[in-house]
Amino acid sequence: MRVVVVGDAGVDLLARPEGGIVPGGDVRAGARLACGGAGANTARTLRACGAEPTLVARIGADAGGRLVRAELAAAGVDCAFAVDPETATCCVVVLLDTEGQRSMLADRGAAARLRPEDVEAGLPGGAAHVHLSGYVLLEESSRPAGLAALAAARSAGMSTSVDPQAAALLTDAGAFLADIHGVDLLLPNAGELAALTGSPDPASAATLLGTVGAVAVTSGEHGAAWVDRGGMTTVAAEPVDCVDSTGAGDAFDAGVLTAWLRGHSPGGILRSGTRLAARTITHLGAQLVTY
């Protein structure tokens, strides 16, 4: 099962300060460098689930880009990367608190310059599905590439999915919904759902069914819900200790997509997503190494 992911690939710098940050001062912290980017996170987890992912992304001609390509390729992800000679690879500083919750300082770098021709060159033949990271649509510089990916998928008869990705960036819900009209599956978290419908209640996803075919909502420790014309199905979250919440939603997407594309029931689809999200938050870094 070949799945195309269109989204960011980059480097995460994870830091857990020992106590509060002191402006102008020094604070000791645990820190590590890891591969990240919403598109890359989902693609790597898709591979761990047995899918054959192709990641369409734009990276810089720098050490970060070389690291990301090498790690993803070693994990079995087909890297259809355009290389930007002028802009650095996406880099995100991830600040972790004592509960494992993350705050991110993101520089999308080359990812923000993804172009329609990058997508056209990277789409492989024989793919079943295209998954688009909302970050691509939510920045004007990369939005045409996101629209091109959805249009190409429809023309080729592939199914499509979109993760809105960032509630704070969904400042024009109407424009975003117009961009994704006709998408088969929308994958918001509760905050993103609230930005699109006015409510974080999964039941509000029913109002989106005139725009998308189905909605899979993740609500963190409160579980997840599947909403389609047949009604709503919910499952509980798996109880685990959270070390690092980075990438949980991206892993949820991968689990949902593989189960959905294999024809599982709504409950099975959701359990696949919540299981992978739970595994991801038990270790540092956004990407599953094994499954």
**Record field, number of beta strands:** 13
Beta strand %: 25-35%
Q: Provide the CATH top-level class.
A: Alpha Beta
- The order of strands across the largest sheet is 5-4-1-8-9-10-11-12-13
Instruction: Give the helices and strands as they follow along the chain.
Output: EEEHEHEEEHEHHEHEHEEEHH
State mean pLDDT (0 to 100 scale). Answer: 91
CATH topology: UDP-N-acetylmuramoyl-L-alanine:D-glutamate ligase
Shape field: globular
CATH architecture: 3-Layer(aba) Sandwich
From the N-terminal CA to the C-terminal CA, the straight-line distance is 17 Å
Domains (count): 1
Name given to the CATH homologous superfamily: Ribokinase
Helical amount:
25-40%
Q: Give the low-confidence spans.
A: none
Radius of gyration over C-alpha positions, nearest whole angstrom: 18 Å
Structural class, please? alpha/beta
Largest sheet: 9 strands, mixed
Helical run tally = 9
InterPro entries: Carboh/pur_kinase_PfkB_CS, PfkB_dom, Ribokinase-like
Keywords: Kinase, Transferase
Protein name: Sugar/nucleoside kinase (Ribokinase family)
Domain Carbohydrate kinase PfkB: 3-288
What does this structure look like?
Keywords: Kinase, Transferase. By secondary structure, the protein is an alpha/beta fold. It has a single domain, classed as UDP-N-acetylmuramoyl-L-alanine:D-glutamate ligase (3-Layer(aba) Sandwich), CATH 3.40.1190. It contains 9 helices and 13 strands. It has a 9-stranded mixed β-sheet with strand order 5-4-1-8-9-10-11-12-13, with helices on both faces. Strand 4 (52-60), helix 2 (63-74) and strand 5 form a beta-alpha-beta unit. Helix 1 (38-48) packs across helix 8 (248-261) and helix 8 (248-261) runs antiparallel to helix 9. The chain is globular and about 55 Å long.
